From TrEMBL:
Name the UniProt record assigns to this protein: Carbohydrate-binding domain-containing protein
Biological process according to GO: carbohydrate catabolic process
CDD domains: CBM9_like_3 (cd09620)
Organism of derivation: Paenibacillus arenilitoris
A GO MF label: hydrolase activity, hydrolyzing O-glycosyl compounds
Superkingdom: Bacteria
Domain called Carbohydrate-binding: residue spans: 27-210
Length: 216
């Protein structure tokens, strides 16, 4: 089954308050396929876009996130990690970005297709804000939060034909993992068709579209 999510448009996306973020439709990263923990970290994603960029926010209910890696380009998937894989123009180009970040905001960013033929991207103009030890006022639970700002101009460096217009259809997936945490786990939004842990399965990506420009 092909999953689908639409990113709404908001001209003030760069300035949304926490309350406004929470009013956006969430995506649950809750497919447990390979290591079936009783209580894996609850993870939700929200997204929105404006004329300049795509904004993605992860909220992870994980009280003590593991952070070992502090330098961009490091294997952050070993830590408490969230990931966003996206094909900007899947009908024309099978390559995809993988944005992988730990709870400190350390970024591993690559582009290519498939897993074995990927190019690391350093010093990308990606806005990142990470916060840990937050408390949800409704439930009292502790969570950490990661905000990403992905400029469309940056996407066009690798995908010149990409256009951020209403109805634009991308493909992608959201993940939560922690290879070297006390309770290793692998979670996804769209189910991954693989017998072993492998997030680099673009055939399993869901559809991500840009919504109409009627907000803000």
């Amino acid at each position: 089954m092909n999953k689908h999510h639409e990113f709404p448009y908001d001209a003030a996306a760069a300035e949304l308050s926490n309350e406004e973020w929470l009013r956006l439709p969430p995506v649950a990263v809750n497919n447990r396929q390979w290591l079936l923990l009783d209580r894996p970290p609850e993870t939700e994603v929200r997204g929105v876009y404006d004329e300049e960029a795509l904004y993605v926010q992860f909220r992870v209910f994980e009280e003590s996130p593991v952070v070992r890696h502090k330098e961009d380009g490091a294997p952050v998937y070993e830590d408490s990690c969230v990931e966003f894989f996206v094909q900007p123009i899947p009908d024309k180009d099978s390559r995809y970005f993988n944005f992988e970040l730990n709870a400190a905001g350390t970024l591993l960013l690559e582009v290519g297709e498939p897993r074995e033929n990927r190019q690391k991207i350093a010093d990308a103009p990606i806005g990142i804000r990470a916060e840990v030890g937050l408390r949800d006022p409704a439930s009292g639970r502790i969570y950490w939060k990661l905000d990403l700002r992905i400029p469309f101009a940056f996407i066009r460096r690798s995908f010149p034909d990409f256009r951020a217009v209403p109805g634009a259809a991308m493909r992608g997936n959201f993940y939560k993992c922690g290879d070297r945490t006390p309770a290793p786990h692998y979670l996804s939004w769209a189910e991954v068709q693989s017998a072993v842990p492998d997030f680099h399965r673009s055939a399993s990506f869901g559809t991500l579209t840009l919504g109409d420009r009627h907000l803000g």
